[in-house]
Amino acid sequence: MDVEAKDYNSLNLSEEQEEKMINEAFQDVLDGYLRSNHRKKVEIIKRAYEFAKNAHKGIRRRSGEPYILHPIAVAKIVSQEIGLGSTSICSALLHDVVEDTEYTVEDIEINFGKKIASIVDGLTKISGGIFGDKASAQAENFRKLLLTMADDIRVILIKMADRLHNMRTLSSMLPNKQYKIAGETLYIYAPLAHRLGLFAIKTELEDLSFKYEHPDTYKDIKDKIVESEKKRNSQYTDFSTPVKAKLDEMGLKYTINARVKSAYSIWKKMETKHIPFEEVYDLYAVRIVFDCDADANEKQICWNIYSAITDIYKLHPTRTRDWVSTPKTNGYRALHLTVMGPDGNWVEVQIRSRKMDDIAERGFAAHWKYKIGESDEESELESWLKTITDILKEPKPNAMDFLDTIKLNLFATEIFVFTPKGDLITFPKNATVLDVAYELHTELGSHCIAGKVNHRLVPISQKLQSGDQVEILTSETQKPTPEWLNFVVTAKAKSKLEQALRKERKKIVDKGEAAVMAAIEENNLTDANRFITKLMGVYNFHTREDLFFAVGDNKVALTDSVVKSTVKKQNQGIFTRIWPFTGKKKDVDETQSAETITPDKINKKEIYVLRSEGGVQNYKTASCCNPIPGDDVVGYVDDNEEVIVHKMDCEVAMRIKSSFGNRLVATKWLESPLQTSFLATISVKGIDRMGILQELIHEISINMSINIRKLDIEARDGVFDCLLDLRVSDARIVDRLCRQIKKIKDVTYAARIK
Ligand code: MN
Predict the structure, then answer these.
(1) What are the angstrom distances between the C-alpha of 679 and each of 43, 250, 709?
(2) Least packed by Cβ within 10 Å: which of 216, 512, 566, 659?
(3) Spacing, Cα 27 to ligand 1 middle (Å)
(4) Which pLDDT tens digit goes with each residue over 451-489?
(5) To which H or E segment does residue 322 belong?
(6) Which of the following is catalytic: 100, 109, 545, 721?
(7) How far is CA 380 from the centre of its chain?
């Protein structure tokens, strides 16, 4: 299906032509399957296809395509890009049948058996319909996703294929739907694909999200990759020629090529390092994939190649990564090194065997569990799934927190820690002694008093380094405190600790409540509620629980004089603390009522135009990311029905996109000469010398006529660090200014910051 979805209607196919096209698309899936190593269970696949085709008959996608082309495409991804077999192909063909047609899971079970029915059921549960208005709908969704995943990982792999096809055909959706789907993909599916080792899919998902969120930047980077190809090719030839000669001399069978970074990862690098495209030096990596016999020593060959390369080029001392001896949690294995190329630039080289390469590109799924006759091995992936299941068994009240905890674990880079017995445990970066204690056992965590790292005594908050050997010291009398939350990192430790703290707190609250009730009885007070409310007022507590806790914790003593003075107290000053939290404050300017946006209006508008004329704006900018005209932005309708504008890549907006997708509006800045100005902050760094500040200010206020609102400068040890708040009319001016400032002698850095 090379046809762009949105062009489908213009093809004007006759019914027979359409039928032929559908059958060809399916035949393509079947042919691919027959070429694979799986058992040839063609009959059931054909039946699943006929069943799905019949069920979706007459239904079309938004693009005009017959609906069945979507399940066929998902089945193709599942088979050819992920490498799964007939059960998964059938489930993919049937994945939308229960949700979108009158057939039930029972119908699937009768026709295709229990296994396929349960996978289709899992897929139905985690698909649309639950992306409702509820704040944590998406998080709940994610939880379900993982729950079913622990059940049968094929559910999540097929869901991944479904999402990939939806992203590939996203152009036919409405813009606000596009942002929601793209945001969700970047926030949830791409990290998950990474975690599962589906590297090619992860990269494509990121690139597609990027394309829809920042279309201009995306195109710009793509163009530049093409423009720079010639130069890159000649650099690569210079680099690889001596390497090839050496590898040939060694008698190896191998392939070598240059892998260009994805547009998304180039952009990420430009953003985090504040550098233009031209300064991204590691635009490509050199990959060497060697063939060897099944029983050959892969590790030895990797290091032989390493040694050959470092004989030719100078090695970067700190950038060697040995994922052959210690594979990543997602199963990735390779030996990476960085060397100085002939043109003086650092070049990353990745060395892998054919098998390692296969796993890296297609993920664990290709080699794991579904190979006929192979026994399950307790892989690292499985133990990761187990952690997730552990947390899911004790879900926290707020599912959104849960999502954050998971996300933290998905993104963090890992460290490896040894137990005294020599077991190797993987932790996210910044994990502490306490994390290790909780990982080993809940009781060990709750009674942890200190640790021994490499045989030296350290506090429980000690951050660990990869390779540390950690021993836990405990004490019977130790109790967890809320401060501990500041230094646990893993989701498991957090959830265990919070559970212990809730238990501890509950004990104190109960004790406090008993004490208050005893005081009421002792003083023969008739209205207990009235007394408690007054007492809350006296000590400024918001909830009864807080009051009871303070009493139970001996922070508030119920002496006779306290009780007496409380009883006498008028009902005053109590509600001033309570009301602002419940009352809804509306500070909407009534004169702007004509511009007020209501949700029903938005649904009809595809693009919401952001205007600012004569100092009046029909939107508010979000304080978290301070977008200014020219930035890629997205609008969000808040509880007051105002449009709040966020930068497309703002962390807060990312979160909103995945949980309040239906409140999003596509936005566009209106170019207007009357525009008022916006606040932007830039950071300038450089060598401290006489007169440099003067030159800087001259450039900003005289040459560029930009108004400086605030200036903070700090000079230390011969360098300066300066923060400037500026009033500007759009983002392009700030970019231009930064370029100008960088031209000033001794300035090493100038960039806009959040
Ligand atoms: Mn689908």
Answers:
(1) 65, 61, 8
(2) 216
(3) 20
(4) 888 778 888 899 998 667 899 988 888 889 888 998 899
(5) strand 321-322
(6) 100
(7) 21
